[in-house]
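Students often ask why we bother encoding 3D structure as a string. The short answer is that it lets us treat folding as translation between two languages. Here is a chain of 127 residues written in the first language.
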Amino acid sequence: MQLPGIGPTTASALVASLGGGHDFKNGRQLAAWAGLVPGQYSSGGKARLGRITKAGDAYLRSLLVMGARAVLAGLGNKQDRFSRWARNLVERRGYWKAAVAIAAKNLRLAWAVLHYGDDFRLIEETA
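And here it is in the second language, the structure alphabet:
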């Protein structure tokens, strides 16, 4: 629950769905299982990425996206590294793509916390 955008409901759903996270080799595989990565339609060496695949647990995915929307709503004028990244992403790609990207990032971070068993520490830059 220390991750931004993950509250008690999402945390309990993550633990119920993933357990310790040892079923997945890395966070990218978990994001693909949850349907938070673009579908690939590639041929002849040309990679074409489409919409998110919407595979996996729809309830978990919707909780993660709602949490990401809460993160975007609470950005305000924060100047930490994550907030600047999120604000830049909204400007470059749009609100909904940014929300899905933050949800996928949160899922990958949650996998790392579950898999390695460490507490989450947001690394602040010392500028």
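Translate back mentally: Residues 3 and 118 are 13 Å apart (CA to CA). Keep this in mind for the problem set.
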